[in-house]
Amino acid sequence: AESRISFADLRFSIWQAKRKAELEQKREEERKEKAELLEQAKADIQTFLKNRAESTEKKQSANRIAETEFRTDLESVMKNGTLWEQVAKLVDLKPKPGKEEQATSRMRSLLLQLKNQNNGPGIKAS
User: Fold this and answer.
1) Are 111 and 89 a contacting pair, CB within 8 Å?
2) Quick check: 122 and 84 in contact, CB under 8 A?
3) Could you read off the pLDDT of 16-26 as tens digits, one per residue?
4) Which keywords belong to this entry (predicted)?
5) Less Cβ crowding at N or C end of the chain, within 10 Å?
6) Domains in the chain: boundaries
7) How confident is the model at residue 1 (pLDDT cuts 50, 70, 90)?
8) CA distance 38 to 95
9) Does the predicted model carry a pTM greater than 0.90?
10) How far apart are alpha carbons 115 and 57 in whole angstroms?
């Protein structure tokens, strides 16, 4: 049994070796690209979480300040204001856009009128 390699077999073997090397190179490039993308994604997530934490802290701080101011103002009105000023402070009298204006506008205007009166029900005589 003579072992003779034909020219076609030799060309096929050379092609297979080149193809195998090309595929291995592509796999390696894909692995590197995937690793880079993974590192970039991790960095992006860390940046997002850092920005989110900073934003949350700023909002919480602003909310605490606003709540302190609101409570101080509310305590002042509750101690010194008339009954209707107290009611007006507890009720949101600002119209809400998009809502049915007719249903609440009369009540809102009535509360504002009562709040601004110097005499009437619930107002102590000075």
Assistant:
1) no
2) yes
3) 999 999 999 99
4) Coated pit, Coiled coil, Cytoplasmic vesicle, Membrane
5) N
6) 10-80, 81-126
7) very low
8) 50
9) no
10) 37
Unique residue bearing structure tokens 């009562």: 114
Q: For the CA atoms of the chain, what is the radius of gyration?
A: 39
Out of 2-11, 36-45, 114-123, give the one with best mean pLDDT.
Answer: 36-45
**Cβ(111)–Cβ(88) below 8 Å:** yes
